[in-house]
Amino acid sequence: MPSPAALHAIIFDVDGTLAETERDGHRRAFNQAFGDLGLDWHWDEDLYGELLAVTGGKERILHFIERHSPPLPGAREPTVLARDIHACKTAHFVKLVEEGAISLRPGVKRLIAQARARNITLAIATTTTLDNVTALLRSTLGEDSPGWFAAIGAGDMVRAKKPAPDIYFYVLDKLGLLAGNCIALEDSRNGLRASLAAELPTVITVSSYTRDEDFSGAALVASDLGEPAAPAQALRGKLNESGIIDVALLERILSGARQATG
Fold it and tell me: CB-based contacts of 86: which residues, under 8 Å, 6+ apart?
């Protein structure tokens, strides 16, 4: 049996956590898909920030249709249109990633390498599609990198997306681990609500769209994971002296969460 306070797995969110994918990745791909499908729609940076309150690409499209009443082509049923837009958008996003348009956030590659060296399990829990995840991993970490993750929970693998905790329960079940032996890394309030509902201690690294969100309940809120030459900034909670989020700090956070819950 694992030690009750031991760190056995780090579970990463993807969009905004592994990489700043939203503004110049997903948003750009959505706009390209609109053009391909003959839609006179455009999501600027502010509108897309508003739409990010809704998790899941297809759900975001349907919310936009309901809230903003854009012109629809012919008699297309909204759910069918959303499916077609999302499929086209995914293809554009994967191409952007494969062309190297998106890079990992500071400290991500370092933390993944350190965790692997320490035999700490890696996993992913995200609302984005599996194709998006694997394309990003292969582009930034190498062709074999999806295999580094013992479980990848993505897209429509569960019924309810974040802020529901379903994707975290799915990943924990695949890992065969208790939440008390894992740490979640997130960037958004919706992601935090999901991880906390699954009883996972959670570290937040804010992204460009989430900096002003409410992160009550997070164990630590920081600007990013930090690098030795470019330390992270603690927005709530304490970093270590080096100013980076590493395995040792995550272990201390997990131990503190265990003590706090008695």
Answer: 33, 57, 58, 61
Q: Can 173 be counted among the known catalytic residues?
A: no
Burial label for 84, CB within 10 Å (0-12, 13-18, 19+), is: middle
pLDDT tens for 38-57 read 999 999 999 999 999 999 99
Please identify which of the residues 13, 187, 224, 246 carries the catalytic annotation.
13
Would the pTM of this model clear 0.90, i.e. be above it?
yes
Task: Output the six-digit token pair for 145.
Answer: 């990198």
Annotated catalytic residue 13: yes
Tens digits of residue pLDDT in 219-254: 999 999 999 999 999 999 999 999 999 999 999 999
Can you list the domains of the chain with their CATH numbers? 9-20+103-260 (3.40.50.1000), 22-98 (1.10.150.240)
Catalytic residue among 15, 166, 187, 224: 15
